[in-house]
Each structure stands twice: as structure tokens, then as C-alpha cells.
């Protein structure tokens, strides 16, 4: 019987697998999310100005709550717009 190394695949067997999401705050040791930094907060907001969910960003629950609070504070102080057509 042929071993696994002898079998030639027509396509890459890892093609359908997606990269594992990770919490960038835990990975890089970021503890404080500054609401006065709109360029950083734009990573967590889509083009319409909505906050992206955890399943898309990969944040943990703790840091997703902190991101949401920071975005809301930045909106209130006019660092970020509430609604927009094309933010990015």
C-alpha cells in the first residue's frame, strides 16, 4: 500500500483550512485601549461605522468589551463618526 508521502494531491489539502484567530491584545500584552487613538480604533469598525463582532476580529470577551467602550467614547467626543458612508 502507498504511504502518505507517495500520494500526489490534485489540490493543496490545507486549502480549506483557515488560520486560527487570536486575541491581539493578549498576544502582544496590550492592557489599555486608548479611546483618543482613532487610527487604532478604525481596525475594529467597518466602513459604515459599526463595531465589528468578536467572531470577525478574534478578540476575547474582555477586550471586545473594552474596544466597544473605547469606540463609544471616541464617538461621543467626535474622534470617530457615529455613521459614515466610507470610513476607511
Can you put this structure into words, describing what you see?
The longest helix is centred in the C-terminal third of the chain and has 16 residues, at 61-76. By secondary structure, this protein is mainly alpha-helical. The chain has a domain at 24-76: 30s Ribosomal Protein S18, CATH 4.10.640.10. It is built from four helices and no strands. It is elongated and about 70 Å long. The protein is 33% helix and 0% strand. The N and C termini lie far apart (55 Å).
Beta-strand content bin: under 5%
Q: What is the number of E strands?
A: 0
The coarse silhouette is elongated
According to CATH, what is the class of one domain? Few Secondary Structures
Mean pLDDT: 87
Q: Calculate the terminal CA-CA distance, rounded to whole Å.
A: 55 Å
Q: Largest beta sheet, briefly?
A: none
CATH topology of one domain, by name, is: 30s Ribosomal Protein S18
In which range does the helix fraction lie?
A: 25-40%
Entry keywords:
mainly alpha, 30s Ribosomal Protein S18
Q: What can be said about this structure in brief?
A:
The protein is mainly α and 88 residues long.
Topology:
Layout: H1 24-28, H2 38-41, H3 54-57, H4 61-76
